[in-house]
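Section 5.1 Outputs to date
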Amino acid sequence: MKKLILTAFLLTISIHGYSQSYFTDSGTVVFHSKVPLHTFSGTSENLTGLIDLEKRTVDFYLDLATLDTGNGKRDKDMRLTLDTENHPFGEFFGKITSEFNPDLEEAQDVTVEGVFKIHGKEQNIEVTGKLTPEGDQLNLTAGWILKLEDYEIEPPKLLFIKVDQEQEIEINAVLKIRGES
């Protein structure tokens, strides 16, 4: 009987662990861009996101006006190119499609499939990354290649030099436990 009660208790703890969601409003996004003979990056520390382990959902967004390349003119051109006045956010909503065990306090490879929206256009994408449970938080690192043409974004150019079609995107976030869903 003691074994049955202990098993039920451990199962409840495990289910409780999966029923929690994690939140951040201070994750980091970095994009890397190339033009011939030059590369530059833009960064924002305003990534907002939620990971719900019970529903296996991932929901993130970024105010694109918070991206900073360290060059005011380039930032202004980027905002015009992305039309942030009409489309102020980059958004992703998806489902965790790989195995993930929140009880294992070690980095685990994860795959998420979902919809990324920017510039008023949506694309289905697959994102790979790592989730690391540490106490009451999840550490997230992930990345993918964003192709500007997939979102009908015309790369800015100066004379004949154009920004590369492919932008490397990286995200890093520490998500704190939010409570049960």
